[in-house]
């Protein structure tokens, strides 16, 4: 059971799992596994002000606050050793990942002007921003016609801090600093990044990724803002400035989706605030701003009401009221074909029980997570969750989770051979929607631990009493498995778990492999494999297509569909808005972009590469005074190999959205 005081951190299922030594901490990001750094990041919700906590050493990053109104969600960081003299009653916050000591600014002065910033020679007409990893800020692809960088501001959140700075942690590089670094290192960009302190192999949060040929960040920044012969169409002129944020490696390592929001939200506020400073210098109103954020995770509410989605919506709605040409572009995700999502309708429940398989792969060095979400306002008190291990294994006691009493967060540990191998939890998210969650430790012995979870097919059983409420008509119970693949740069050695039908029920219709749309959408389906951070109503969601045939990429995420009683699908919740090229052809997966060093190239597969192509087109439109979607085509036609009926058209729109962006690379 979770008992909450009237102030201090809230303990949710991920917090309990990640921060507890007896649960998942040994396999968390290294700084967490080692016991933390003494400096925490956190989020305060419901419009609260962290300053009211009265913590002696508390940092609120640069915030964009039009009219001085406190944001709905506020990121902040503080030293663990400092306790409030007079805690603010009723103020609660969620702890996120620790902040490295080396990145903590000794003298944080948020009102200071960024050091060495130089006003651009040409007044900007638009700004493009990229939030990602390993940003190659010295690459020639981002120079203007005068040989000066167009990167106005760049914040390395895990950079080694200067003694005094207008950022609370990490290091900020302005255009003047970048240009001077290029003058000091005219022929060796590797040495430039070393000289700038942008690489630190002994710091896991920063690392030496800018020594690589290509990074996710180099690819995304190139697509969104680069000028080389690789890109088609108009070049980005001197009237388009760039703002970049490099997030810590912590963001990509952890597979829970938890604990990253402070860094993510701080990055967005930084972009909005620095864009405001640029406009202020030229004495103009808010400039058009296109932000590419090619990041996300799989599990979550998917209804726009998670803390990060509320924060994104809050920022977008307020800025669009001041400048309509404001967009945050995000990928739909790459999980369509990975069997990471399932829906359970009343018809599919089968009376009082429902079973589904959860396949945990061997040699998985990271924790695995599964979430089951009930509809908003639904009371699951008469439902219970049972977890059965793979054949040949036995738990110390039956793993059963049921809601008891009125506590909004409840836990049951899973024991095997006297040790904890997992956790079951129920929590009432934001007081309006219940979630059942499962967490398992890695399936292999690692991190000097003598315990592991069995690999194989776990069985997830949902049971209900005879008088339990039925699943509402037009709605579903929804299951998502959290992303758990291995970020290549970080070598976490995670392996993706997935959902499996426990047994075949009745005959199944076999369709030709060249047909992407089925006559009947199965319960385990990619329809609903939406980026869990991208469900806000104002977010620009981008999925991917294959340039060769204008068909959806096999992996590209899709809007959710509810199968009605007549078996016709209907769209529900966040849907694809735009598709862009993410594969050039089946034999040439991915699309090219810039590498780390000037003149180099790399390829990236995924909707993460589709999103910045849209951001590129949008900022060019904004600078030219056109509508953001100018030049985009409508939804691509249904392929001739598909059956043409209402069913397939609905599936097609869920995957291909309203607009089709042309390719931006050769």
From TrEMBL:
Origin, by domain of life? Bacteria
| Swiss-Prot/TrEMBL GO biological process terms | proteolysis
The record ties this protein, via InterPro entries, to: Peptidase_S8/S53_dom_sf
Ranges for region Disordered: 640-666
One GO molecular function term of this record is: serine-type endopeptidase activity
UniProt name for this protein:
Peptidase S8/S53 domain-containing protein
The species this protein was found in = Halocynthiibacter styelae
